[in-house]
TrEMBL record:
Residues 339-413 form the AMP-binding enzyme C-terminal domain. It comes from the Eukaryota. It catalyses: butanoate + ATP + CoA = butanoyl-CoA + AMP + diphosphate. Its EC number is 6.2.1.1. This is Acyl-CoA synthetase short-chain family member 3, mitochondrial. Pfam families: AMP-binding (PF00501), AMP-binding_C (PF13193).
Length: 450
């Protein structure tokens, strides 16, 4: 991986949060024409990995927090042609073990000195290794992502999508274990020549709801990438942004978010420039996005439907799963399959229920087997625990109820959009293809009792 050398401005800011005190920041430089400390650290670690037998094409697990050494490990892997798999710290042991099984060497972080096994003393300068790498480990599993197209796409989006010029400060408030962290904390900014902020804290509680504003002001951040959940958490604790108003945001011009729709009032919408409700903007080049009905026919304007993207996907998108096409169907075409693994559940549907903080949370509608005598409350507790152990707390699954039957079309499909509206207390539409429309009334009655 080659980063863009543009100026003497810092390329990596670290904002750590330790023991309730905002610790001293660390600034890493990539200076044009100068072999700086951080580049030497990357080369040192690359040499250590080579000496330990890591070679091009090997998979390396990185299970570390939001610290500069994590980025160092990523760049060291890229330097020698190894494939890194960053793991988000919120995953349960089962999900962690799956990723470890795919790896050759494991890099971990621990504050106990006897656990640190990589010693960076004598080293050789390791040059970048040319390799047509095609695998990027994301938050769920190994996805095949052609590296050439990925790098070109990241570099292009920094200016075309986010409007940044080289040298302007960028902050993606995500985790390196997510694909956003891969793309827009590490590689995207470095490829485009933008200083990138690496933040260890949280939106609130480290120490307060003004933390994000302080980082934006101190580093003169020009563009900021975050999640609606983070913005809602800040608004919940500081509704009038009193803490945020203490800081000057004169250099700040762009907020962008991902994960779910954001509440309009969170970003000051409501004036004459407000876009039409439901408008998300235009797709980037290469995507053929359509809205289809249940019969896979295009819908009319202003009509709700299913968002689909026609294949093939453009450069930068993933093109398959790493040595596991069977898992592709299980992960992307089944909804919470581990619920169906519970011995008491005969059928289930998981839909999104509106939530004031997170936008939507998973809500399970379960049908029990006829011979089950256990209390429903106990079964639901078991299911929640089973999902947590299988997927991890990141699944955020806590709500559900039991019904006698699920509504289905004559072809056996579950109308999840209608069920999502129903459990959220909103109007819903029953399509003519539903086999037994009375099931909706039954679910409404159960909801009222709950």
């Amino acid at each position: 991986t080659q980063w863009k050398e543009s100026s003497t401005r810092p390329k990596l800011y670290l904002k750590p949060y330790l023991c309730g005190i905002m610790n001293t920041e660390r600034i890493m430089h990539y200076r044009s024409g100068v072999r700086c400390l951080y580049e030497i650290q990357v080369s040192k670690l690359a040499d250590v990995m080579v000496r330990h037998g890591v070679k091009k094409g090997d998979r390396v697990v990185i299970y570390m927090p939001m610290i500069p050494q994590t980025v160092c490990c990523m760049l060291a892997c890229a330097r020698i042609g190894a494939i890194h798999s960053l793991i988000f710290g919120g995953f349960a042991s089962k999900e962690l073990s799956v990723r470890i099984d795919h790896a050759k060497v494991i890099h971990t972080w621990n504050n106990k000195h006897h656990c640190i096994i990589l010693i960076l003393r004598l080293f050789r300068i390791i040059c970048c290794f040319p390799l047509r790498s095609e695998i990027l480990y994301s938050s769920l599993t190994g996805v095949i992502r052609p590296t050439g197209g990925y790098a070109v796409m990241l570099n292009w989006t920094m200016s075309a999508v986010y409007g940044l010029k080289p040298g302007e400060v960028w902050w993606a408030a995500s985790d390196l274990g997510w694909v956003v962290g891969h793309s827009y904390i590490c590689y995207g900014p470095l490829l485009h020549g933008n200083p990138t902020v690496l933040y260890e804290g949280k939106p609130v509680g480290t120490p307060d709801a003004g933390a994000y504003f302080r980082v934006l002001a101190e580093h003169e951040v020009a563009a900021f990438f975050t999640s609606p959940t983070a913005i809602r958490a800040i608004r919940q604790q500081d509704p009038e942004a009193a803490l945020g108003k203490q800081y000057s945001l004169k250099s700040y011009f762009l907020l962008t978010e991902s994960g779910s729709p954001i509440t309009a009032s969170c970003v000051g919408l409501g004036n004459s420039t407000t876009p039409p409700p439901g408008q998300a903007g235009k797709p980037v080049p290469g995507y053929n996005v359509m809205i289809l009905d249940e019969n896979k026919e295009p819908v009319k304007a202003t009509t709700l439907g299913n968002i689909v993207v026609k294949l093939p996907l453009p450069p930068g998108a993933f093109s398959g799963l790493w040595e596991n096409q069977e898992a592709f169907h299980k992960l992307y075409f089944q909804k919470f399959p581990c619920i169906l693994h519970h011995h008491a559940v005969a059928d289930c549907a998981v839909v999104g229920q509106e939530d004031a903080l997170k936008g939507h949370v998973p809500f399970a509608l379960c049908v029990l087997r006829d011979d089950i005598k256990t209390e429903e409350k106990k079964i639901l507790e078991d299911i929640v625990e089973q999902v947590r152990n299988s997927i991890g707390p990141v699944a955020a699954f806590q709500k559900g109820m039991f019904v006698k039957q699920l509504p289905k079309t004559r072809s056996g499909k579950i109308p999840r959009s209608a069920l999502s509206a129903l459990v959220s207390g909103k109007p819903y539409k029953i399509t003519p293809t539903i086999e037994d429309a009375s099931v909706f009334k039954h679910i409404e009655e159960v909801l009222k009792k709950k």
